[in-house]
Amino acid sequence: MDFTFSEEQLFFQQTVADFLADNVTPEQIRQRWESEHGFDDTTWQGLAELGAMATLIPEEHDGLGLRFDDIIMMIQACGKAALPEPVIDHSFIAAPMLAQLQAEQPSERIGELLASMATGEKRVLTAPMINPYLNFAEQADHLLLQFGDDIHLIDKSEIEFDRAVSVDRSRRICAVKCKPNGSTCLSNGKLGSELWQATLNRGALANAAQLLGLAEALVQQAVRYSCDREQFGKPIGVNQAVKHLLADCAVKIEFAKPVVYRAAYTVAVAPNRADWAVSHAKVSATQAAQLAARHCIQVFGAMGYTWECDVHIWAKRVWALANEWGDVGFHKNRIHEWLVQPKALLGPEFTFGRRNIRDVEAID
Amino acid sequence: MELVYTAKQQDFRMEIRDWLREHVPVERLPSFDTAEGFAAHREWEKTLAKGDWGMVTWPKEYGGRGCDLIEWLIFEEEYYRAGAPLRVNQNGIFLLGPTLMEYGTEAQKSRFISAMAAGEEMWAQGWSEPGAGSDMASIRCRADRDGDEYVINGQKIWSTRAVFADWVFGLFRSDPDSSRHHGLSFILVPLNAPGVTVRPIPQLNGLPGFAEIFFDDVRVSADNLLGGEGEGWSIAMSTAGFERGLMLRSPARFQQASKKLVELYRSRRNDILDLSIEDAVVQCYMEAEAYSLSTYQTASRLQQGAKIGPESSCNKIFWSELDIKIHETALSLLGPRAEVEDSNAPDQALVSAWLDGFLFSQSGPIYAGTNEIQRNIIAERLLGMPRR
Description:
The complex is a heterodimer. By secondary structure, chain A is of the alpha+beta class. Chain A is built from eleven helices and nine strands. Chain A has helices spanning 7-23, 26-34, 41-49, 68-80, 87-104, 108-118, 189-228, 240-269, 275-299, 311-321, 328-339, and strands spanning 124-127, 134-135, 142-147, 150-155, 160-163, 173-177, 185-187, 230-231, 234-235. Chain A has a four-stranded mixed beta sheet with strand order 1-3-4-7, covered by helices on one side. A three-stranded antiparallel beta sheet of chain A has the order 2-6-5, with no helix packed on it. A two-stranded antiparallel sheet of chain A has the order 8-9. By secondary structure, chain B is α+β, with helices and mostly antiparallel strands. Helices cover 46% and strands 13% of the residues of chain B. Chain B is globular. The mean pLDDT of chain B is 94. Classes of the chains: A alpha+beta, B alpha+beta. At the A-B interface, α7, β9, α8, α9 and α11 of A face α1, α3, α8, α9 and α10 of B.
């Protein structure tokens, strides 16, 4: 039983965090807002060069063959930086979906696509039915589109984009229209359904890890402001009413972290029984991030309600991600469904399943 | 990260499970806030000690098993799963024990720890005074040095279980000219010493769980000083203090309660319920599990040599508020039955257990440092907000 991250995992996270600190500043994010596509190729390429996009791709397709728990803190770091580019969807949602498909029914075409995804040369994003709006779909070379249980790989040229404007200007969302057919279909039936189920879990978990990072960034900024901003001759942070707003956020974040990390481990070692862990992660992280957005705007006072103050870069991402890959209601319902099953394993001795998360008897 | 129990850990789980199956009393013991219940719980502590289960993390020479924190968590999971009696000597084993291990002399350790682990001596704590609650540094109760003895004068209050306990530990002002957290000493006082008066204070449930302790020229040997004279504050606030914070309320307690809550909810699903019930049940179960995961994470980190930090202040807020939520939700499910403390109804034991737990849950955000004080600690030490 070891619930800590390894040196390598911590190092990988730190490398990405350092890159983002230099390359994704609030000023640079605002520059993207003014640009036509809001997409920065240098950032995309930089993260590809660090290896981020190769992490979940198997070694035989030029990837690093890592597990979801190896990269979960990297996603958290992307959230903390409010990274606009869809690196997470490409690398940690679309890539493992294709890798899983390739393992089940290998094909040369998908193998090559995976190799070009690992270097960031080709961009692939997912289009699951649960998300009506897709972020940066216009910047993708291909979309992995859900149609019932089917998985369709659709080329950009075959897609009609219906743009919408997100409250979060860093997100470039659109609805997509296309005509999937037999030739675009990669998989269907039981395998398709299983792959979409696993993809929903990876999506919701990646979303939860970003929300955790966003919450941390919000609290850090509010703490800094509470030390600098003076009223009545003292920093506003000396007031208990202000302290307690942020302490409550810290408590929520502190108890969302291990839930997110456990879900990452479960997705890595027992993807078929990860629903409960992932839903728990999504709910906890969303609640923590929503409280952080609310309380941190409050700490900034009138400044928090302005366009000029950077807080809304993070707050609006929270509000957008809260409802992507299943909102809190969707995920609480999944937990509820499980809790009312007479055969659910409940109680202190089952935190990690019957014997452990891998145990085949665990949640059946 | 490998969230798998080793074979040794599995064996340990089965060993304690088997032992508990044979030894846990079938009938729920009466409340340990009554003389009869206290005696019954004292007997249970002795039974535990005979099986070497008194305090599994302690070294073997003090009646423990030298278990690590993961094994401690497993022990706690099985303990609550089995519905074993609450630990009447928790002040001793969870609070004083670890402090004695860290600061006690060899003589003190062999004198006090073994007796504590054997269930022979029960401890009360003496921190608060009428004028020193959240502001504990304003302690006034005096311990004046007189040769080989201290002479204690003053008053302590909110001493849990002091009515039936054998000893009290606490902070006393040993330097009369000192102020605030200077000049305080950590002293162990036998409650049967001449000059000690213990007056019960009924708690919210009407039972004498609290006491005031009056000290009138009480003489105790200077051997009962823990650590150096005047160092009491830092001992009370030490690393051991943080670890006590980890061990005071183990996650298993809340996981077992939320499991019972889910069972109660399943049995009432066909009734017309408060619209927020589903949500509350889901939330309680999730939070109990989150507390468990967080504790496993902390235990893993500590085992790899990390020090517990100010993030542990988050624990108390989290579990105390969760405890209230679990019990409020249960009472809501019980509806009009929830107010009934005693009756001939067949489900009265179930109702009484929830009602007892609900009343007790009201104390959680207050004891061991109010949640408001914990929030200040989090803001200042974890987040780095300005003190003044």
